[in-house]
Please model this.
Amino acid sequence: MTDTTPAGFASLGLPFSILRTLEELGYEAPSPIQAAGIPPLLAGQDVLGMAQTGTGKTAAFALPLLARTQADFKTPQVLVLAPTRELAQQVAEAIKTYSRYMNDINVTAIYGGTDYGTQLRELKRGPQWVVGTPGRVMDHLRRGSLNLADIKAVVLDEADEMLRMGFIDDVNWILEHTPRTRQVALFSATMPKEIQRVAETHLKDPVQVKIQNKTTTNSNISQRYWFVTSAHKNDALLRIAEVEDFDAMMVFVRTKQATEEVADFMQQHGFRCAPLNGDIPQQLREKAVEKLKAGRLDIIVATDVAARGLDVERISHVINYDIPQDTESYVHRIGRTGRAGREGAAIAFVRGREKRMLRDIERATRQQIEEMQLPTAKDVNAKRKSRFQQRILEAISPEKNSVYREMVESLQQEHEVDPLELAAALASLIQGDKPLFLDENEDLRARREPRETREPRDRNERAPRQSREPRKAAPDARAKPLKGKPDVEMQRYWVGVGYDHGLKPGNLVGAIANEADLESAFIGHIEIFEQYSVVDLPDGMPEPAMAVLRKARVCGQALGIRPYRSELALESSSAAPRRNDNRRTDNRRGDAPRRDGRRQDGPPRSSRPPRKGNASQG
Model:
C-alpha cells in the first residue's frame, strides 16, 4: 500500500484494512454524511441521518460498523433493512467490497423473489452481516432460520421509502425482536412524523446528522447514458470513440486491472490509449498526462485515485465506464471536461442494477441525463469508410510518391491490371488482415435485456388517481396506460386479496415490487374491492415472475394473480368496492398498512405476534 491513503478517512479512526480498500476505490476524502456519521457510529452511538440517496450514506454506516464487526463470531451482528430487493443487493455488494481485506467477514442478502433454499444455506454459514427487505427478514425470523439475539447494530436505510411502500409496521416488529442494547442508525431523505415516531421509539439519544445536497454540474457538459451489460462495455466504448468527434477522452473505471484491460483493448483497435492507476510509477503517470496534453495520446483510462489533480483542457469527453458509487464522485469525474468555457460531453454506462444510482445522480444534480442511442454498426462503418478515404487523399503527393507511381505503372502495363483493381489491392495492403467494417447484422442494442430497454418513470411522478367513489359494476377489463409512458402496454390482473383482508395499495405495491423485481413505476392503476383487487402491470410479464407472484402472500392471503376476466369478479363474494375514504388511497402515496393490513410475506393476522408500544399507522 502506498502512502496516498486519503488523510480525511485516516483521521476518522478507521482500521488499516478499510483504508486500504478506500484507496483502491479512489475515495479521496469523506463526503459530508460520511464525515459527520462515521465518528458517532464508530463510537457506538445511535445516528439519525437525513440525507438524499447518492450522498455516500452506504459507506457512512458500512465503514464504522464493519470496523466494529467481530469476525471470530459466526452469528449475525449487523442487520440492514432496505425497502427493495434492488437496494438490498446494492448495499450487500458495497459491504462485500468494503470488507475485501477483512478476513472471514460474510454478508448475506435476503429478499423476496428468490428461493429460500439458497438463503437458508447462506444463513447457516453464519454471516456477520444480514441485508434484507422487511418481509423476507420477518419470514426467516418466524422460520427460526434467522436469529437476532447477537445483533449489535441495526441500520434502517431509506426509511421514508419503507414508509411509502407500507413496511413501517414490519420495521417496528423486527426492531422489537432485537436486543435492547443494539445500536440503531436510521437514514431517511425526508422526516415525516411516522419516521420521527420510529426514531423516538427505537433510538437512544441519537446524534442527528442533516446534509443539504448542493451538488451541481457544469451547464456546458451534455450528459447521456446507455444501458449496457458488462460483456458489451468494451464494444460500446469502441463504437462511441469511433463515431463521436472528440479531442481527448477520459475513461473512468473502478479497478486498476480494468485500466490495463480497457487500455489494451482500445490500443488493439487503433487508438492511442494509456492506463493510469496507482501501481504505475509517478514519473510514467506524468509522462502519460503530458502526452495527453500534447495530443500524442487520444484516451486515458484511469481510476479515481490516479486521476487526482489531473487538469487537461483538451479533454472533451468523459466516459463513466463504471458508474461511481456516489454523486460527488460523478460530479468530480465529469468536471474533467467542459473546462475554460468549452463544451464537454459525459456518457455513463449503466447496468440494470445501477439504474437506481443513475436516478440518484439526476436528483442530486437536479439535471436530467438523457438516454443515448448507441452508434450502430452502420454508423461505425460510415465513419471508418470516411476516415480510410481521407487517409488515402492525404497520402496523395506527386513528389513523395514518384517512385511508387513508376512501380504501379510498370505493374499495370506488364500484367494488364485494371487501375481500380490495383488501387483496391493497395488499399487492402494498408488495412491488413483486420476487417475494415463491422458486421451490420450484429447490433449491440439487440442484445440488451428486455428490462433494460425500458426507462423507468420517475418514482416521484404520481400515477393516475383512482376514483374514491364506489362502483357497483365490476371493473373494466381494459388496462389504463401509464401516465407519461404510452409506449408501455399494460394488462389488467386479478388478485385474490381485498379490503376484507386489510389490503391497502401500499401493501400490493410493495409485494409486487419485491417479489417480481418490478420497479414500482411500472405498477399502474390499482382498484380494491371487498374480496379481490385489480392491478395493471406491463403486458408480457415473464412467467417466472408470475409464478412467484401467484405464491406470494399479502395480509395472510395468497395473491393468486391471474389475467383479469369479468367472470372472476362475479365469482368473488362482492364486485362492489367498499365505500371507505379513510382506507382508500392512491397507490403512489404508498400509505403504510394498518396493523391488520400486512404485506405479502406476513402470516394470517391470528399468527402475528403481539406488538409493544404504539405502532405507526402510516
User: Anything to note?
Assistant: The chain has a mean pLDDT of 79. The two ends are 49 Å apart (CA to CA). The first helix runs from residue 7 to 10. The CA atoms of residues 87 and 356 lie 8 Å apart.
